UniProtKB/TrEMBL annotation, chain B:
It comes from Virgibacillus massiliensis. It is found in: Membrane. Belongs to the UPF0014 family. Its main location: membrane. Keywords: Membrane, Transmembrane, Transmembrane helix. The keyword Lipid biosynthesis does not apply. The chain crosses the membrane at residues 6-27, 39-61, 67-85, 100-120, 132-154, 197-215, 227-249. GO terms for cellular component: plasma membrane. This is ABC-type uncharacterized transport system, permease component. It comes from the Bacteria. InterPro entries: UPF0014_fam. It is a multi-pass membrane protein.
Amino acid sequence: MLQVENLKVNAILEMDQVKIEANKVTCIIGKSGSGKSTFLRLLNQLTSPDEGNIYFKEQDITELDPIQLRRMITMVPQTPIIFPGTVRDNLLVGQTLSGMDPTTDSQLMQVLNRMFLNKSLDMPADDLSGGEKQRLALARAMLLSAEVFLLDEPSSALDNTTATEVIDAFTAFVKESNKTMVMITHDLQLAERIADATIDMNQYSLSLDRKEYSNE
Amino acid sequence: MSESDAIDLTLWQLLFAYVFIVILWIIVRVKGIPREKLIIISTLRMTVQLILVGYLLMIVFEHPHPIVTIVIVLFMLGFAIYNVFKRANVIINISVKKTVAVAMVLGISISMIYFLFVVLQLDPWYNPQLFIPIGGMIIGNAMTGITLGVNQLLIGMREQKAKVEGALMLGATPKEASHSIINEAFDSAMLPTINSMVGMGIVFLPGMMTGQIIAGASPVSAVKYQIAIMLGVAGTVSITVIIFLHLAYKTFFNHRAQLQETKQND
Ligand SMILES: Nc1ncnc2c1ncn2[C@@H]1O[C@H](COP(=O)(O)OP(=O)(O)O)[C@@H](O)[C@H]1O
Ligand SMILES: [Mg+2]
């Protein structure tokens, strides 16, 4: 699905050959500051590497229109982005921005329920708690027609129980709809439980203090 | 507005007006506020600059010439563009500066041509007595508007980076991703003009109208001019700011639709 070759971002990361398989859950683990977020941003074309290539379905992504690419490979950032307006507005904005027709309220309620967010569609989204905003952002991603979901520490603002429920539900959604998921997590047990493959960023990191790394 | 109706100040009357500054200077001196020099210098500058402009305009008005009129307006325009760069309280990089210049030149030319030829229908078209002051007003207002627009756009792009990228992640085009920032910048650029239209005639009498009335014109004819000018100003500010914003937001993105690291100076 995704493949990188000799990828390098100066002073941050260097990856020779990494593959991300279609319809699989890939977890990215690694120390804080090792370059996990940078790697996801590269896959989403929010930044370009200094060297090397990224292929999406065997095609060099620099040959693809970046906006179309982001509609196929979407990303949910670590800090959820909430737009002005209601919960409904926030769910629909993703569809609008990615050029899709907006869905019905009942479908919106469905994704909210899957993310354990029992809130009214008319509620101002700004009134949600941090964890609820994160689940809203995940629910919004579920409404997109993307093939690959890049999730940057989606459970960081959630308590353990909710995190497990939400991540399991998202994983189930990805599996049943034959999508691909790439998730950053610092929770090794979670990674072990749901990941089909794991990428350890520590081994590709240039930003980590070398000494600290070799002491691990 | 024939010359004979105008109320001319005698030299003595004018000198009496300087008493205000003398009083200010004495107060500042007695209080020990270290601004004596500044007061003298700014009074002198104001006096000398206005006298020079007065004589320059007198010469220009007596010998109307299209090239001279246009050169003066272009000089004002150039100075206004320079002022935008200086007065913006954020650092503006070279590509934004270019868009400011393009927008001011385009927006002001379009609206001045329309205003002078369609609305005012001057005869001759380069009549410096109207062309220059009206050009000055339009340029001055566009300058204020675009300065506010530049500030708000740059602040918005800096403070709402995460939101812009959040929209990009959802598949937005750069234009869609900066939509709300563009709108905020437009609002803040237009607000002073809108407010001054609302307060017009009640809170204050605009300078040009006051000037015409003092110079002996009938208030109704002065009002007609003022209405036309206000509409012209509002139109120019909006055209200029819209052109600016629609060129400027693009400079924050590269050809891969990525939000660029804002370079402080290049
Ligand atoms: N825009 C940037 N410019 C320079 N350095 C950056 C930038 N973004 C991140 N970094 C640095 O790159 C390294 C990796 O960051 P990041 O990818 O966020 O790590 P992680 O997500 O693994 O915590 C860090 O040392 C960080 O300071
Ligand atoms: Mg990170």
